[in-house]
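Why do we care about 3D structure at all? Because function follows from shape, and shape follows, mostly, from sequence. That is the central idea of this module. The next example makes it concrete: a single protein chain, its amino acid sequence, and then its structure expressed as tokens.
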Amino acid sequence: MIDNINWYKSWFNSPFYPILYQNRDSRDARELIDNLIPTLEVGENTRFLDLACGRGRHAIYLNSKGFDVTGLDMSKSSVLEASQHINMNLRFLVGDMRNIPFENHFDIVMNLFTSFGYFEDAIDNLTTLKSVYQALKPEGVFILDFFNTPRILKEMVEEEKKEIQGVEFHIARTYVDGKIRKQIEFEHNDSDYYFEERVEALHLDDFKRLFEEAGFQVKVTYGDYALNPYNAETSERIIVIGSK
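And the structure:
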């Protein structure tokens, strides 16, 4: 049974999480990174932090481009898998984004693929951004990528079933108390399982306010991985870039 407050701890460490999301590949990671890098001031000594790195797909690709990369994630199982790819310029750590164990260390921090808004208390969103601010060098850059909430709410699929590796996942989505909830139920080896994802339904104005309250200057926003302008009705993503 899921911890109702810290749902992400049980779900992200579950062996069923990578099964449900096994079709996520690195193409979107490559597209965003390939399009972003030319817009940033980077060199051979640029240090990246992939915040909430999961199993490391973004960090691994960044490292393949020649950059020094640290990945940080709360999920021990994800970090263990990502650590199979470590080298002298790529490392992975278990940690909490609200308390990043670095100060004035990174040139660029990335938080990608809607890895934000999980906490029960909204103040933790600001706490996270302040932690990012502290971890960045002066004039460092923070890149946050989130789903486009207005479009997600408009196109939400309320119920669906997915059979993957012999497991039939029953998924129900709702919008309750400002959060997008995904309830996941399935049976495996005669045992019933229930997990839940809860993500705060943040809008672009919310991110701009949070960035500014944390001390960042918002430089630019985009609406997809091709870096097209943001449109609340049609964009796939909310991408916000701020500087320290």
